Amino acid sequence: MLDAIKGVSKSNKIGLFINSCFAHCQSERQDTWFADDSHMIQDKSVALSR
């Protein structure tokens, strides 16, 4: 399955976030993305990372 995204991993201009769904309905609920205990990427919440 991850072979399908190999082209993205070689780019330094675009990225890809793989949602591992640490909570049910995470993608639909803002309170999960912006929660104090939300996962972090480079010291930013997932909701604010880019």
Automatic annotation (TrEMBL):
Residues that span the membrane, as ranges: none
ATP-binding in keyword set: no
Family to which this protein belongs: Belongs to the pectinacetylesterase family.
Superkingdom of the organism of origin: Eukaryota
Annotated keywords: Cell wall, Cell wall biogenesis/degradation, Hydrolase, Secreted
GO biological process entries: cell wall organization
Name under which the protein is recorded: Pectin acetylesterase
Molecular function GO labels: hydrolase activity
One Pfam family this sequence matches: PAE
Assigned EC number: 3.1.1.-
Coiled-coil blocks: none
Compartment(s) of residence: Secreted, Cell wall
Function of the protein: Hydrolyzes acetyl esters in homogalacturonan regions of pectin. In type I primary cell wall, galacturonic acid residues of pectin can be acetylated at the O-2 and O-3 positions. Decreasing the degree of acetylation of pectin gels in vitro alters their physical properties.
Enzyme class of the recorded protein, top EC level: hydrolase
Principal place of residence: secreted
